[in-house]
Amino acid sequence: MTTPRSIIDKIWDQHVVADLGDGRVLLHIDRHMLHEVTSPQAYAGLAAAGRRLRRPDLTFATADHIVSTENGRTDDTVPGGPEMIRALRANAESTGVALFDLGDIRQGIVHVIAPELGIALPGATLVCGDSHTSTVGALGAMAWGIGTSEVEHVMATQTAILRRPPTMRITFTGTRPAGVSAKDMVLKLIATIGTAGATGYGVEYAGPAIRALSMEERMTVCNMSVELGARFGLIAPDAVTFAYLQGRPFAPAGDLWERAVEAWRALASDPGARFDAEIELDVSSLTPQVSWGTSPQDCIGVGETVPDPEREADPKRRQAMRRALDYIGLEPGTPIRDLPVDMVFIGSCTNSRIEDLRAAAAVLKGRRVAAGLRALVVPGSGQVRRQAEAEGLDRVFTAAGFEWREPGCSMCAGMNADRVPPGKRCVATSNRNFEGRQGPGARTHLASPATAAAAAVAGRIVDVRSFEGGA
């Protein structure tokens, strides 16, 4: 009798190239994604060492972080960007790497286009010099962010050096209430176990509430695995996964598709598979979540009040809460609902896919953004933008008073011109609310696309379930 194995064990074992004898292994990397911020240094290191890019056919590039999202953009629109964008272009051309450049309908946020194009596949290992690479774990891939030196290593060898991570299964039980999104599920998880709650683990998300999610909703959950401290997070592939992938440009086709699906069906944790840690979260009574502080774990239900640091037993946590409240400009006991906001941002690798835009547009249809509030919607890719325009969503957004932008990371990372001014309060669908994340002095409140859209209309944080189209 064979020992029951988890999906993580199965993918790991299939990719070990060599045991280095010190607890580390060489792991084969099936796909490597590059972007303009972390690849130029790696290319320079490769050239300095006299090495070549080993597998250009398994390497894909796009520009997303420092690109402008303004309509009519060029390489030169964002100060500091032209050098990185042109370096990526030149490096991709000289090494034969597929580049999804500005002006290409396939350009977009790296974690959005990898599944959209079928580059990310079940059972694959995928890396990128970006921490939210965990997003594509939603397809049943083992995917994680790597540093610049590791990017160079993967480019030279098509392998990564890793220690086998401990495994954790997080099971979502119950039925998600109407008006509650996958973003609310993962924010509640982080608020429950903390940003260090899964540090170093390889996480499998499981349970009926996960199985009930669409493919794009699963990407939202896996995207924020890194906010739990996890090495990566994934979901076993199923019929939802296969339906999403079939026909994607880089996915297997013809006979290869049938053989691939047969292999992918085996990628599930065996009954009795052992995990180093197990967590269970019931979503039956979950409400829309909004962050109050400067960490993704600083989240509460939209009907709750800002917690009091003086009630916190842990002195380090108490001090962190005080600092967060000082930065965000809130007092303990303040209801998060009805808090006035200055800006709304719908976008980022967490929530910029077509389903996210549909959810926001459903709230905005026939309504207007509150006077004096600035609102941006930034599709995650050229294909998302085109699909949204085909469905008329762009007209819903612009009629409501939103700015309709070109694809890119935009106001999530604040690396281009899209920033929140100091002291201004923004409801954002992105993944991080750190001090200065959206610009120096910016005050960020994380929320779902529907909650963000409702806040744009009301000019304050509201319970989206009270809006027609939001439930």
TrEMBL record:
One of its GO terms (molecular function) is 4 iron, 4 sulfur cluster binding. It catalyses: (2R,3S)-3-isopropylmalate = (2S)-2-isopropylmalate. [4Fe-4S] cluster binds at residues 349, 409, 412. Keywords: 4Fe-4S, Amino-acid biosynthesis, Branched-chain amino acid biosynthesis, Iron, Iron-sulfur, Leucine biosynthesis, Lyase, Metal-binding, Plasmid. Residues 9-459 form the Aconitase/3-isopropylmalate dehydratase large subunit alpha/beta/alpha domain. GO terms for biological process: L-leucine biosynthetic process. Transmembrane segments: none annotated. It holds the Pfam family Aconitase. Pathway: Amino-acid biosynthesis; L-leucine biosynthesis; L-leucine from 3-methyl-2-oxobutanoate: step 2/4. Binds 1 [4Fe-4S] cluster per subunit. InterPro entries: 3-IsopropMal_deHydase_lsu, Acnase/IPM_dHydase_lsu_aba_1/3, Acoase/IPM_deHydtase_lsu_aba, Aconitase_4Fe-4S_BS, Aconitase_4Fe-4S_dom, IPM_dehydratase_rel_enz, IPMI_cat. Gene3D superfamilies: Aconitase, domain 3. Its EC number is 4.2.1.33. It is an enzyme of class 4 (lyase). Its cofactor is [4Fe-4S] cluster. Belongs to the aconitase/IPM isomerase family. LeuC type 1 subfamily. Heterodimer of LeuC and LeuD. Catalyzes the isomerization between 2-isopropylmalate and 3-isopropylmalate, via the formation of 2-isopropylmaleate. This is 3-isopropylmalate dehydratase large subunit. The gene is leuC.
